[in-house]
Amino acid sequence: IRMDSMATTGFLKGIENKVRGAVKRAVINHHRRGDTVLFSDTTLRDGEQMPGATLEPHEKVRIAQALEAAGVHSLDAGFPASSQADIEAIRLMIGVIKGPVLTALCRTVRGDIDAAEEALSDNPRHKRGVSLFCGTSPLHREHKLRKEQPEVLELITDTVGYASGKFDIVAFSPEDASRTEPDFLVECYKVAIDAGATTIGFPDTVGVMTPEKVYDIIRHIQDNVPNIDRALLAVHFHNDLGLAVANTLAGVQAGANVIQCTINGIGERAGNASLEEVAMALHLNQEQYGVKMNIDTTKLFELTQLVAELTGIGLSPMKPVGGDNIFATEAGIHQDGLLKNPDTYLPYRPEEIGARGIRLVLGRHSGRRAVAHRLHELGVELSDEQVLGVLDGIKEVPKGVSIDDDLLVQLAGRVTAPPAS
Ligand code: KIV
Ligand code: ZN
Q: How many CA atoms lie within 13 A of 92 on its CB side?
């Protein structure tokens, strides 16, 4: 058989596309049937959108490396059409970040997809993707896009189709999904998957959902999008009602395959679901959710500190996982329990998240045991009566003065000093 070179190229391209399609389907089937929920981190995109959280390209690479070490499946690495710095950061990640898929955010605009292709072209095809979004709610259709439903569907078909000609990994998210009519939402997902989307997202863009509503809508999508078996379903919650983590867990319970979140929950307005909180909730409640995850929880504490340091967005002392007080207590009853067995007053041990350890803070609420324990560590042995004397001394220390080791030893000195003759 003789074939001219153009026909040969066309024939080989056809085979290549078929193989690629088969691999794509196999990967999606594997993830849909498996029991592992995937983490897609958006600290470097949605997180960095937070006022004041600007990151330099080399800082983004450091965070990306720490996310890779923690086992994140994909990184929403930036929005190439919106900023040269995002392109630079993505280019710096290529060759350094080898495990996670790098994705770039795009509007449903062909030029955005071209910009993403340019930024990501040096990454292997199976490790690069695009994440398209387009407002679908009545508010967005009327006031932002000025488009009727059929025009929005056409736009999705056109741009997702265009993206899937260039990328094997294409996500489509109807922006403001939580305020979009459920039936229209189903249509948006259907046309996106028909056009080649491999992941469909459910963003609660303005953070209005509650866990019960999340469960219902995610089930609705899984049960009513006719071609859903050809795509993964991702959830993305903002924290305007303080429910982003709870909503994410409800999404997992209802069968979401991918969780989009950020370290420390940084992001637009009240932020996003916090990766470290979702991961610890799943880690401690694996049986309830029936899913596994590939997150190494021992890397989480360090990640929270790194993101706080590089973004300059500090953490509340009470912030779960990363806050200063998570393993600290001043209360006598808690200190006594922790000294007998740390599990009495902890949900998990510090080493499970790679944190430094328990801190028994001495103050007005402390008890004898913690005082005696710290003095013993400092080489000072006192009788029970003397320890009570030190405690009385602690209670007299003015507000705002912390009881450090020097002050504690001084107070101990007072109760052991021989009475003046
Ligand atoms: O919250 C949101 O709607 C987003 C989109 C870009 C997916 O972050
Ligand atoms: Zn968002």
A: 18
Which of 45, 46, 185 for a ligand 1 pocket mutation test, highest count of atoms within 8 Å of Cβ?
46
Residues 6+ apart with CB under 8 A from 107: 81, 132, 133, 134
In angstroms, the CA 55 to CA 267 distance is 13
Task: Supply the residue whose CA is at minimum distance from atom 3 of ligand 1.
Answer: 205
Instruction: Write the DSSP string, 278-335.
Output: HHHHHHHTHHHHT-EE---GGGHHHHHHHHHHHH-----TT-TTTSTTTTEE--HHHH
Q: Does residue 173 line the site of ligand 1, with CB under 6 A?
A: yes
Q: Which ligand is closest to the CA of 79, given by its number?
A: 1
299 lines ligand 1 (CB under 6 A): no
DSSP 240: T
pTM of the full structure:
0.95
- Per-residue pLDDT of 267-297, as tens digits, reads 999 999 999 999 999 999 999 999 999 999 9
Mean pLDDT per 10-residue run, the chain (421 residues)?
A: 74 84 87 93 97 97 98 98 96 97 98 98 97 98 98 98 98 98 98 98 98 98 98 98 99 98 98 98 97 98 98 98 97 96 98 97 95 97 97 96 96 87 63
- Tell me what percent of the residues of the chain surpass a pLDDT of 90: 91
Beta-bridge partner residues of 107: 133
User: Ligand 1 in contact with 175 (CB < 6 A)?
Assistant: yes
Contacts of 148 (CB under 8 A, 6+ apart): 141
User: Which residue has its alpha carbon closest to ligand 1 atom 8?
Assistant: 46
Stretch (H or E) spanning 232: strand 232-237
At 394, the amino acid letter reads I
